Task: inverse folding
């Protein structure tokens, strides 16, 4: 118990007395609460986040607020998102062990999660801006996506367990509503909370004036809202990944929902593409090309690892109702064509989501620091224009982009182009 049966936001003054009787907390921090020290570190859009340190160890305490922190109490948001984050973390840890922080305590009433303190990990987006490479990041992200997406689907799960889980996560409707609005809809009209760098008006007009593009975006939204293929992280971007030079963890799955397999992959790829395009504003010419090449190599290697592990799971853990072995292997037939078709659909969905996410991060609410940290608005707008036009290409011409090598060629072309 956190000493209160009604929800109450934590403060630096109340966090110690409210958590001091929780055994999982004292076992890690130490029982001498006079030595506990708290610091608020939350810099996200939604929640309170604290580091709590004792003489034995440290913890992260994350608590949902009843509103969107980025906007304020004018935008209410249910506390139940902490419940869905907790349940997502539990499932991710089971399906992709050691890829997410350990959870030590959860209080549903207080919308509070106590979890592993990742140290000396830093947010990946900051490392990309600073030009700090991470060893093995492609492998961790590729395995995470393959294992969580496959094992959370009807390819692997017992059908009754899957349907019950889909029903559970349908309750995360408020967070899905944010995605449906801010990602799929707001970038494509003059929405109230939109904002953009001055100078992009011509590009914005082209995007919002393209009916074919908006139709494809709404097709993707229809999949997002009605396709329950697997449990997705829901917000898998470079701000949801924490790294050291050789260790990577995935955090913040409060947007967890059952949706298309390509969603998480597309979100992740788009953030690497935006990091790639933004690099000229963050790197000297001496280091620019090498670091940009490394970012593209991450995308290529990540998807290779994802495909290989997904294929391995297809062969070894395909025990669900989809593509059962009774229809293929048990009759002496190969299921290779079925796997190829499924991976092709995942890839095309990922490309569409990638383009949409690029548009949202530049035109909608909650922009990426990759661009927002660029002080010179002229330089920022030129780079954002490249990204916006690349996003349009990914949405409209995804069928012509067969693999990550083709995607890299497109990224290099838009990186070299000028659109303002």
Result:
């Amino acid at each position: 118990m956190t000493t209160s049966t009604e929800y109450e936001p934590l403060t630096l003054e109340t966090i110690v007395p409210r958590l001091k009787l929780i055994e999982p907390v004292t076992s890690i921090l130490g029982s001498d609460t006079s030595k506990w020290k708290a610091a608020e570190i939350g810099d996200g859009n939604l929640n309170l986040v604290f580091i709590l340190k004792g003489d034995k160890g440290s913890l992260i305490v994350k608590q949902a607020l009843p509103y969107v922190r980025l906007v304020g109490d004018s935008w209410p948001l249910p506390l139940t998102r902490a419940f869905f984050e907790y349940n997502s973390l539990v499932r991710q840890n089971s399906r992709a062990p050691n890829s997410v922080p350990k959870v030590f305590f959860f209080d549903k009433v207080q919308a509070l999660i106590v979890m592993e303190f990742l140290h000396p990990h830093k947010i990946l987006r900051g490392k990309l801006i600073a030009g700090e490479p991470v060893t093995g990041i492609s492998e961790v992200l590729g395995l995470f996506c393959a294992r969580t997406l496959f094992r959370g689907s009807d390819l692997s799960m017992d059908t009754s367990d899957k349907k019950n889980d889909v029903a559970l996560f349908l309750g995360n409707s408020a967070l899905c509503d944010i995605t449906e609005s801010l990602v799929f809809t707001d970038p494509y009209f003059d929405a109230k909370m939109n904002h953009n760098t001055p100078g992009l008006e011509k590009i914005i007009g082209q995007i919002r004036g393209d009916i074919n593009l908006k139709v494809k975006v709404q097709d993707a939204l229809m999949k997002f809202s009605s396709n329950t293929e697997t449990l997705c992280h829901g917000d898998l971007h470079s701000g949801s990944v924490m790294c050291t030079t050789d260790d990577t963890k995935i955090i913040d799955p409060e947007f967890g929902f059952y949706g298309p397999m390509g969603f998480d992959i597309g979100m992740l790829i788009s953030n690497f593409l935006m990091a790639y395009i933004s690099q000229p504003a963050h790197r000297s010419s001496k280091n620019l090309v090498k670091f940009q090449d490394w970012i593209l190599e991450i995308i290529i290697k990540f998807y290779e690892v994802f495909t290989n592990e997904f294929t391995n799971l297809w062969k070894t853990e395909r025990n669900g109702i989809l593509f059962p072995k009774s229809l293929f292997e048990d009759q002496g037939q190969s299921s290779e064509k079925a796997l190829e078709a499924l991976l092709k659909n995942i890839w095309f969905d990922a490309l569409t989501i990638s383009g949409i996410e690029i548009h949202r991060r530049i035109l909608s609410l909650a922009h990426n620091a990759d661009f927002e940290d660029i002080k010179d608005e002229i330089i920022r707008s030129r780079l954002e224009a490249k990204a916006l036009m690349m996003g349009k290409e990914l949405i409209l011409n995804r069928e012509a982009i067969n693999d990550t090598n083709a995607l890299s060629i497109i990224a290099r072309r838009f990186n070299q182009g000028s659109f303002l």
Remarks:
- The first strand starts at residue 37 and ends at 40.
- The CA atoms of residues 276 and 295 lie 6 Å apart.
- The first helix runs from residue 15 to 19.
